[in-house]
Amino acid sequence: MDVIDIASTQEWAALVDGHARDLNLRSLFHDDPGRADRYVVTAGDLRIDYSKQRVDDATLDALFAVARAAGVEARRDAMFAGDPINATERRAVLHTALRAPAGVVMGPRTTDGTTVNVEPDVHEVLERMGKFAERVRSGAWRGATGKRIRTVVNIGIGGSDLGPAMAYRALEAFRHPKIECRFVSNVDGAAIAQATADLDPARTLFVVSSKTFTTIETLTNAHTARAWLVAALGEKAVGRHFVAVSTNEAEVAKFGIDTANMFGFWEWVGGRYSVDSAIGLSLMVAIGASGFTEFLAGFRAVDEHFVSAPLEQNAPVVLGLIGVLNRNVLGFATKAVLPYAEELGRFPAYLQQLDMESNGKSVRLDGRPVSTDTGPIVWGEPGTNGQHAFYQLLHQGTEIVPADFIGFANPHHPHRNHHDLLVANLIAQTEALAFGYDRPDEPWRSFAGNRPTTTILAPQLTPFVLGNLVALYEHIVFVQGAVWGIDSFDQWGVELGKELANRITPELSGDERGVHDSSTNALIDWYRANRQA
Ligand code: F6P
């Protein structure tokens, strides 16, 4: 696939040779009182203030020139048009079709230029999901003994877990009061054991979520869950207590789930981009079909903004390019995401997969090594907890960590005094990080400042706003991948570890021994010697 080496362009040279490294937030704010009004973009219900990033007009112009040189707009249009931009897997990338309005023709584009319209399939699955979710919520769907479902256990991993788990926690305020969702991902047996320990099988529904339906962790957990259920209710009960979300009908049937109770999606939806597909089924049971519709509308609002806003006011473009500046020009290797909302506790973990599995690449689309750094290490924790743990390093450490602060005007709880305190802390942190504090007499009390942050605010954390947030970050990742010329939609880097684990598993309990290095052999030997059968 044709791709340019962005580092070899004049635009890149102009960016790198520009004065971005000399910018200081204290003087930028001092010299330009209108800065806070100008360096704000809105997308959906999000107000995004990037005035505390180390940019000025010249730096932003240089960044937009880089985006144009990299062909970011053409690549975005190719994604929405259904071109196979996931080149290494020869697939279209169409998670945006999952939330497109009814009636809009979207789908993979074939070599002769025609579009295979996926809209009817997308809406058919959404309708089936909606009906199923409402049946569980109303009690029309019952377990094998006639009892109502009280717990939904989603079994999946990676994109088949993090999205629904993150969104369920984020939207607890909107959930059915009598139906709880739990999420089991880790193959560590402690996960399924803990999740089921206090459950009544007769009131439990398992949603086995796996795009491929071959993922060893998910299948192992699903088989254990099945055995747990069958031990209590018998084989015949499986149909009332197991449903599947997958693209692989044959494997679902092989597992023993009635494919009438399978909710499909498609190869053009990447795992980490799938929370708005049938992978969101457990979330839909929790928040209802109408809540899920709002969630999708939130994505759509940001998709429409991404497609139509000029680059200079385009939130994913502006934030994506600022990420490029931070990573490649200023040399910051990590990025913190700091939600000031307890409900967004899993949001950093969700973004870790979205960003690091997408842009943790060192080979370009043309197969050549990249000549710039690519995706940052993404990490974070909700405020204010992080303030009492790692913020010391954010303020005074030798490593500068650009951070996104996320907050809301209105909480879902009645404790306004807590919320004012929470938001005061959010705002104070961005002020302290940007402007620091001079104490020449006591240098250990000095804060150098000039530590870049973006502040993302919204009126309240609703399904719509969560959709805004997720789509915003999806498109930021896209913009950065396009600049770096990498395939943000494959994940070959996870394969080798899986393959080796499959080889080592029988060696742990049997007499067989593969060919390994001395360290790996010693680890296997130690485990065998200490393993109690
Ligand atoms: O970790 C690799 C990966 O393929 C992720 O991209 C994906 O989200 C996860 O495994 C789970 O895959 P599946 O949904 O096919 O079980």
Question: Could you walk me through the main structural features you see in this protein, from its secondary elements to its overall organization?
Answer:
The protein has helices spanning 10-17, 25-31, 35-38, 57-70, 72-81, 119-138, 162-170, 189-196, 216-233, 238-241, 249-255, 281-308, 315-329, 347-359, 391-396, 416-435, 463-484, 495-509, 518-530, and strands at residues 40-43, 46-49, 151-155, 180-184, 204-209, 242-246, 262-264, 334-339, 377-379, 403-410, 453-460. Strands 1-2-11-10-8-9 form a 6-stranded mixed β-sheet, sandwiched between helices. Strands 4-3-5-6-7 form a 5-stranded parallel β-sheet, sandwiched between helices. With 533 residues, it is of the alpha/beta class. Helix 4 (57-70) packs across helix 13 (315-329) and helix 7 (162-170) packs antiparallel against helix 14. The chain binds 6-O-phosphono-beta-D-fructofuranose. 6-O-phosphono-beta-D-fructofuranose binds next to loops.
